[in-house]
Amino acid sequence: MILRTEPLTADAFAPFGDVLEAAGDPDKIINQGLCGRYHDRARLDFGPGGRAGISVFKAELRSLPLELAMVERHPEGSQAFLPLDREPFLVITAPDEGGQPGIPRTFLTAPGQGVNFLRNTWHGVLTPLAGNGLFGVIDRIGDTPNLQEFWFEQPYRVTSV
To answer: How many other CB atoms are there within 10 angstroms of residue 77's CB atom?
Structure first.
């Protein structure tokens, strides 16, 4: 079972979340005309009893092709990944089909793109392909369980376009 990556676009990714990027004209010019603000670009959702937290993740670099054996989701909150460099990373997601992931889709980011996974969206683990592997992560902080994993009976093989 082979999955080929596709470019990350806002339209293609919309069922799973938000593409975070400074594309097009800014919503507002601020800081004495020296900064464009791209305002409110993510549908953040942290559920009852939780709060937003900002963490820094350091992930090991990976390469294609790779084996996709597991996806996860967070039923109590959204999760945003913002790379701390301008290198591409792999974004894996899958539609929910009766409480289990359907056929995954794989996206390759362009420089400067991040993503926000909507609450309860199946997705792969953080998968940088180049750079330093550092990401700013905005997600739910709370005491209730917020992670579900699903292991595929037959792993997928992810390749480039």
So the answer is: 24
Q: What is the pLDDT of residues 43-67, one digit of tens each?
A: 999 988 899 999 999 999 999 999 9
Asked if omega into 65 is within 30° of 0 (cis), the reply is yes
- Closest by CA to 4, choosing from 78, 46, 64, is 64
Q: Letter for the amino acid at 27?
A: D
CB 44 within 8 A of CB 116: yes
Distance CA(140)–CA(131), nearest Å, equals: 26
Backbone angles phi, psi at 109, to 5 degrees: -75, 160
Q: Which of 101, 92, 103, 95 is nearest to 66 (CA)?
A: 92
Scan for tokens 């199946």, then name that residue: 122
Characterize the bridge pairing of strands 89-94 and 122-123. antiparallel
Domains and CATH numbers, the chain: 2-159 (2.60.120.480)
The structure's pTM equals 0.93
Q: Which residues have C-beta within 8 Å of that of residue 19, sequence separation ≥ 6?
A: 8, 9, 10, 13, 113, 114, 115
